[in-house]
Amino acid sequence: MASVSLSSRLNKAVRQQYMSLPQGERVQVTYIWIDGSGEGLRNKTRTLDVEPQTIDDIPEWNFDGSSTYQAEGSNSDMYLVPVRMFRDPFTQDPNKLVLCEVLKYNRLPAETNHRMNCNKVMEQVKEHIIWFGIEQEYTLLGIDGHPYSWPTNGFPAPQGPYYCGVGADKAFGRDIVECHYKACLYAGVNIYGSNAEVMPSQWEYQVGPCEGIEMGDHLWVSRFLLHRVCEDFGVVATLDPKPMTGNWNGAGCHTNVSTKQMREEGGLEFIEQAIEKLSKRHKEHIQVYDPRGGKDNMRRLSGHHETSSIHDFSAGVANRGASIRIPRPVGQEKKGYFEDRRPSANCDPYAVTKAIAYTCLLHSEDMEESEEENIPAM
To answer: Do the Cβ atoms of 326 and 314 come closer than 8 Å?
Structure first.
């Protein structure tokens, strides 16, 4: 029997009795933010007297940063600045979810607030209408840390029948996947699709296309929804890029990228130019493609299990063992997008999309130092 949380076994019928009570004109707004780990999400809820119509209707708030790895106890108040609003699929309309940036006491961005600098870069490249689509892989675990539905003292059958599989012996945890999908649609997250992945109990969903800063906003809220749905089912969704050692696939956050020029006739030329630029900054990108400066990806980017080597840059058409993949239809049509397969499942999408936009559209080897100073550092 899979290990699930005790909370998930509480009587949901009793809960529903209270959840269905009317709330008048007052509205619950749940503030969501990234904590000091750069991976974890936190949230808390307050009441507003009327339903907010835009993000400007939601006031700033604060929290104790000493309890989220973000401040010292002697100076612990941090600011929550609302940046994007979504519908709440858990308490439903008119209640809201709001993603926030975190500022320190001096109004400077917290160390794990990569959104602010990402937004600055996206504003500088706005004319290129850069689109992103991210494939978020994750693995379901019991609360004991063991993959959900795996044998307690052993392993399931080898990889092969699980990718896009169907059947009780091939797809583990589909209820969670489908509930998460519906929650994203209800909330207004731009979810594109989902599928079972190569390793059993591993799944993927895609978010996008999103323009500029919206990519990070929508992916982070989709992650919050995933963790929240898993909480209801009593299991854990881990974004660890290599949750199981041995002959099992890792988990990535493959990032698909295109600009207006790439999507137009003859766009392959601009795709190839971008790949050439990325090839010259491989090390810099690896450092921001997971929260630990590349250490997490060291376990995943081995050159095996549909990954490239972390030490080498490579690119190819329809090659899932390359750093950058050009999809076969793109190669045939000579326009479209490319896929950066290096980001880890637990990456910060703000750091990833900022790095790609900067390298492909702003960085130049002969750029003067004075020009570099005006661009937020990677």
So the answer is: no
Select the more confidently predicted residue: 366 or 264: 264
Q: Taking 50 as the threshold, does the pLDDT of residue 98 lie above it?
A: yes
Using CA atoms, how far apart are residues 257 and 224, in angstroms rounded to an integer?
Answer: 23
Q: In degrees to the nearest 10, what's the CA dihedral of 85, 88, 94, 98?
A: -30
Buried b vs exposed e over 245-276: b needs ≥16 C-beta within 10 Å?
A: eeebbbbbbbbbbbbebbbeeebbebbeebbe
Name the residue among 54, 110, 53, 52 with its Cα closest to residue 80.
110
pLDDT score recorded for residue 161: 96
- Rounded average pLDDT over 40-52: 98
> How far, in Å, CA of 178 to CA of 162, rounded?
17
Query: CA gyration radius for the chain?
Result: 21
Cis peptide before 327 (omega within 30 of 0): no
- Give the pLDDT mean for 277-295: 96
pLDDT tier for residue 347 given thresholds of 50, 70 and 90: very high
Pairing status of strand 77-87 against strand 96-103: antiparallel
- In angstroms, rounded to a whole number, what is the distance separating the alpha carbons of residues 296 and 242? 8
* Domains of the chain with CATH codes: 26-111 (3.10.20.70), 122-369 (3.30.590.10)
Kindly indicate the confidence band of residue 378, based on its pLDDT and cuts at 50, 70 and 90: low
